[in-house]
Write a structure and sequence with these properties.
The protein is mainly α and 151 residues long. It has a single domain, classed as Winged helix-like DNA-binding domain superfamily/Winged helix DNA-binding domain (Arc Repressor Mutant, subunit A, Orthogonal Bundle). Helices cover 73% and strands 7% of the residues. The longest helix is centred in the N-terminal third of the chain and has 28 residues. The radius of gyration is 18 Å and the shape is globular. This is MarR family transcriptional regulator.
Length: 151
């Protein structure tokens, strides 16, 4: 295996592990308010701006079917509602209700405390640099995928 293949594999394995670690943290933060990490993820995507299911899926990097299932569960529990979408008649917009925004707000203190612990452990400058590098990696992967799709 070439050095570049080793780098790609190492990045992928590390990101897979990080994903699991972040999901574990998110589960711990969301559970006390009666949510799962997946519920919080979808709610968080629509707390400020309504989005169609496909838009949430693209933003979060999960399947449209998974988002639809979670959005339907959240709608049944009164956390989100579906609104007409002026841009697309069949793809309704998902938006957080007052109850959904309140649930996300209740996660806030524990979320802030964990963010403080993490940033203190890494240092604020290094935490910001990690975030920039992860965004850059994501943007690059997105660009490469778009180039492949455009072949």
């Amino acid at each position: 295996m070439s050095d570049r293949q080793e780098l790609l594999s190492g990045m992928a394995v590390t990101v897979f592990k990080l994903n699991g670690q972040f999901l574990h943290v998110a589960e711990g933060l969301a559970r006390p308010v009666g949510l799962t990490a997946a519920h919080w993820q979808v709610l968080g995507a629509v707390t400020r701006t309504p989005l169609p299911v496909a838009g949430i899926a693209r933003e979060m990097g999960i399947t449209r079917q998974a988002v639809q299932r979670i959005a339907d569960l959240l709608a049944e529990s009164g956390m989100v509602e579906y609104l007409p979408n002026p841009a697309h008649r069949r793809a309704k917009l998902v938006t957080a209700t007052v109850q959904g925004r309140e649930a996300v707000r209740r996660i806030g203190p524990a979320h802030a405390a964990y963010a403080d612990r993490l940033c203190e452990a890494l240092g604020d400058d290094r935490a910001a640099a990690v975030h920039r590098l992860l965004r850059e990696l994501s943007d690059t992967l997105e660009r490469l995928a778009a180039e492949e799709d455009g072949r």
